[in-house]
Each structure stands twice: as C-alpha cells, then as structure tokens.
Design brief:
Rossmann fold, 12 strands, 21 helices, 5-stranded parallel β-sheet, alpha/beta, 7-stranded parallel β-sheet
Amino acid sequence: MTTQLVVASTLFGAMTAAAAADSGRLGRPDGERVLLVVNNAPAPELTPALDEIPGAGPVQDRFDRVVHLTDLVAPVHPSDWRPGTRELPALERLLRHYWGLGDGPVELVCESIWVNPAQALARVFHDAPVTVYADGLMSYGPTRNPLPLEVAQRLGVLLHLDLVPGLRPVLLSEHGVEPVVVPTAAFRDLVHETAAAGGPAGERQEAGTSPRRAVVVGQYLAALGLMTAEEEADLHADMIRAAVSSGADVVRFKPHPSAPPGMLEPLHRTARDLGVALEVLDDPLPVEVHLDRAEHVAVVGCFSTALATARAIMSTPSVAVGAAGLLERLTPFQNSNRVPLTVIDAVHRPRSPYADVAHLQGLVDTVAHVMQPQTCAALRHGAVTFLAGLPEDERARYFDTSRLTRLELPGGRRRHPVKRAAADAASRLLRMPAFARVDERTRSSAWRRRLARAVGT
C-alpha cells in the first residue's frame, strides 16, 4: 500500500495541494493520503500551525490524517534541519514509525524542494517519487538552488495555480519537469468552503450591502533588505491612496506575519487624512478567503501573489504600487523575487506591451536565463531573440546592462578582447573547487566583489 505524504507549511499551500487532490492531479494512492504540517514561521512557538487556523477544517478533510514535523525536530527550526548522510537510514525508520507510515512505498508531495525541510525529507525517503507543487509566483522563475542528483532524478510533475493564464513556469524545467495546472475552479471552491467554515464571520456579504472595501497587502519588504522601514511605511501609505482611488470607503490592511506592530500607526494617520476607515486583518487566513467573504473593489500590493490570485482566481481587480521602483533597486540580479516582481509589474502596467501572454512568456524566460544562465541554458537562444527585438527603454526597465554584457547578450556593452579574456579567466577561477569550499560569507566578501566588478563578472 502506497502512502502519499503531502508536506505543507502554509494554509494557502495546503489549499493548493488539496485542490490538486480534488481535481485528480495527485492521483489516487491505494493507501493513506497524509498531511505533514510544517510550521515554518520565524517563531513557530508564537505562530499557529496551518491546522490550528479556524477555517482549516475543509482542507484537513481532504486527508486521512495530519502529522507534524516542527515539534519533532525542535529546537532546530525546520528550515535549518539538515540531517547528515549517515543519519538518513535510521531517520527513515524512526519517521515511518512515529508517523505510522508502515513499511510500504511513500510518495512525497512538497513545496520548495530546493530548500529544507522538503529536500531533507526527500533525502530521508530516498526512493520516494517526488511531486512538487508551487503556490505562488515563484513558479515562473528559475530554480533557486541546484538539486542533488539523487533528488532531481525522482521528480515527477510541477503542480501550479494558473496565476497568469497561459504563462508557463520555468521552475525545475532544467530537469525536464512538466508543469501541470491545478484547476482554478477546484481552488476557488476550496476557498469558498474555507470562508464558510468560519461560522457567521464566513457568511458572504454581497455587493451593495456593505461599504466599498479594498484590501492592502503588506509584504514587510524591509525584512528582506529591499528598502528601509521608513520607505516601506511610505509605500504602504501610497497603497492606501491607491485603494481610495479605486473607490474604497474602507481599507483593510493585511500585514505580513513578521511585521512589527509599530508599522500600523502611520497607516492609521494616512487613512484619517483621506477620510476612510482602516481595518487590520490580523488573522492568519489567506487574502483569498477574505475576498470570498465580502465584495472588494480592489486588492492593492507591491508584488504579492495575492495580486495574481485576486485577478485570475477571485475575479477582483488588482493594483500594483511601487513595483517599477523596486525593480530598479533589486540586487543582486539573481534575487529570487525578481521574476514575481517582473510578472506583477508587466501585467499591471497601463497599456502594457506584455498583454499578449506569448510576449510575456518571452520576458519571463529571458529574465530567468539572465538570472541563472547555467541552469536555464536552454533558454539562451530565445533570450537572444527576445532581447534583440526589445526596445531600449524596456531593456533598461527589466535588465542590468553590465549583466547583459557579461553574458554577451543583446543590450550589453562591447568588451575589449583583453578584458573579456580576463573576465573569462576570473570566472573560471571563482568557480574552482577551492573557492566553492570556502564559507559563503567569505566568498561574498568585499575583495571578491571588487574582483568580480573589475573584470565584469
């Protein structure tokens, strides 16, 4: 009997996997389908796990049992759990016993296979087929980290929501993984069930029976080092103004779970100045559940996945604020937020030149190649063609000239042959095993960056 072990760290992710199960995208295991809950919050002891969230019942009902990882590996945080190779056989026996998985085959369904704990679990269950599901815009970008061969060769399909209808994910494509869409209707139905499971608060309020509402989604970009706390407060104030411009009488702000309480006071001042009410949605339910519970005139954010789900799944208008400015300052170019930011910016621009999904696909594939030229080597020919036909202002918006230069792509500067040879030599030097063994902090030090800049790498 085969047991299907579905790993989820957020309610949104569990809803995606459950919708995949409802639509038959996860197959029909002849054994149990078990939900493995991972509380991956920065402070798990202060944050409810997904199965502790009111309204999570419909999701849990899709599984035969629910088991947990976080308490088991504590005090090690799940994302820091890196079992050694010699521990794996004993760990497999222990986890099979602890979770009641028996001795039969296990299928692993997980998110973010390129990081722990998903990758650790794939190593523990060393012969389990692996299905990956993507619950956000990251699916359109390249794989962040290389996968061990013993994990990569067991990959099946990539399940993803159709967040930008027709756009094909790049994630895991270097391993020949085929993307499979989780039907929008299945996910929307599960959102509706989750909203209704909350009792009276879950009763849907129809249009015309309540004030005109908009949701503003906070992302806590300061925590990612993308801007200062003061700049983020100004960005959130701009989002409130955009919500009011969309016709909202009530602005509902959903802060990032890691956001400090002090960030709310400037937002209350902005709302008072604009003459609108500000509500704080401090529950752990996904934004989509709130959109189902009441009619909203807009969802406003920077580059949150909620902007895409609002448009494509919940039929709610979305407004992106600050995306273009953030594109200019996002460093390094390989930053994993680049593709989600690019997609949101391209889709939300007035009179966007990327309204045609084929043209948007060209942009996404090219950005992915420029981010990870070795991982996405198969995309180079298309990237050359796309960049050659791209107007200069569009290249400047989405690409870094020095990086195009280093990769010898259209839009880059011509390099002197001697400097090009020096750059190639330095690039080979920095990839040598001796450098690869050095601690990451050392390899990122000032001298290494100066060397890279000096030769254009």
